[in-house]
Design brief:
The complex is a heterodimer. Chain A is mostly helical. Chain A has a single domain, classed as 3 helical TM bundles of succinate and fumarate reductases (Up-down Bundle), CATH 1.20.1300. Chain A is about 80% helix and about 0% strand. Chain B is an alpha+beta fold. The longest helix of chain B has 16 residues. Classes of the chains: A mainly alpha, B alpha+beta.
Chain lengths: ~110, ~230
């Protein structure tokens, strides 16, 4: 039987997953930027490719991932400083609530359709 | 009311792998999971092995995983679990000796690592070493730990790395480091500030959810992290 998921462990696994995704994005980003070396033309071509709606949708996904990782990162730092220990679950709910607001506000201008 | 106990069993003499076995027990209000296990052992199947002693949540012998959460069998009311089937498993990541009995040696070895005794270089007087009520208050939670292992066995960091000291050991370290009479702080901080020490705590809070005494090892670990950072600065 699986060990029961609690708020803290859900926050932790999402933090890990988003961290891995951000690291993966960083590599991808550096790879895209490496086309700068190959002259303005090849860079233009890559940038044109990235105009595709699919990449815009992926960017919206990236926004969600970054927003969660940063807000929960703040939650973890506050907890590591010994504050709000008794309220860690409420703090997670705050992370989710503020995160959704920031995500929606940021996703609207990125939405390609 | 009839409740099914689904118990993860393993006999090293007979079984290659552990397996679940079901028992149906008639449960009355007030019956704990431990009462249910006793009922099974005494009337249905004498081969079932589990540890128990005080049946009042102070000895820490009957910690096990009940419906996916670590608890003490003796202070878990069967009816309060609100399930027709109660799944009982040994504490995970601890080596199983037989059925629900796990080898606690690795757990107690990690308690021993942090030197769980008073270190005092200065000579004591002819009387006991006194402490102010405020200083004693810092230790209230830490001295309540019954060393049942529910926290360490619930910790994902421990599942991943068996060398991690774990919440119980770090909680014990806190108990001495924050004791105004103790003089071994530097020594102990050196021990726990290790790659297998407190930096493996990722504030997941499973230990807090699991603790049958409602203690907060994560808070103690955060205080220790702070102590290390402030002494190193």
């Amino acid at each position: 039987m699986f060990y029961k998921w609690h708020v803290g462990s859900i926050a932790w696994i999402l933090h890990r997953l988003s961290g891995v995704l951000i690291a993966f994005y960083l590599v991808l980003h550096i790879w895209v930027m490496s086309f700068l070396q190959k002259g303005p033309e090849s860079f233009e071509r890559v940038m044109h490719l990235l105009e595709h709606p699919l990449f815009k949708l992926l960017e919206i996904g990236l926004l969600g991932v970054v927003v969660y990782h940063s807000l929960n990162g703040i939650r973890l730092m506050v907890l590591d400083l010994g504050y709000g220990m008794a309220h860690q679950k409420k703090m997670f709910l705050a992370v989710v609530a503020v995160g959704i607001v920031l995500f929606v506000l940021g996703a609207i201008p990125l939405y390609p359709f | 009311m009839e409740i099914t106990f689904k118990i993860l069993r393993f006999d090293p003499d007979k079984d290659k792998k552990s397996y679940y076995r079901k028992y149906t027990v008639k449960v009355e209000p007030g019956m704990t999971v431990l009462d249910g296990l006793n009922e099974i052992k005494w009337r249905l199947d004498g081969t079932l092995a589990f540890r128990r002693s005080c049946r009042s949540a102070i000895c820490g012998s009957c910690a096990m995983t009940i419906n996916g959460v670590n608890r003490l069998a003796c202070n878990s009311q069967t009816l309060a679990l609100k399930r027709k089937t109660i799944v009982v498993e040994p504490l995970r990541r601890f080596p199983v000796i037989k059925d629900l009995i796990v080898d606690m040696d690795p757990f107690f070895e990690k308690i021993a690592i942090i030197k769980p005794y008073l270190i005092a270089h200065s000579r004591g007087g002819s009387r006991e070493r006194l402490q102010s009520p405020e200083d004693r208050k810092l230790l209230d939670e830490a001295v309540t730990c019954i060393l049942c292992g529910a926290c360490t066995s619930s910790c994902p960091s421990y599942w991943y790395n068996k060398n991690y000291l774990g919440p119980a050991s770090l909680f014990k370290a806190y108990r001495f480091i924050f004791d105004s009479r103790d003089e071994g702080t530097e020594e102990r901080l050196g021990i726990i500030s290790d790659r297998d020490g407190l930096w493996r705590c990722h504030s997941i809070f499973n230990c807090v959810e699991a603790c049958p005494k409602s203690l907060n090892p994560t808070y103690a670990i955060a205080e220790l992290k702070k102590k290390i950072v402030t002494t190193k600065l």
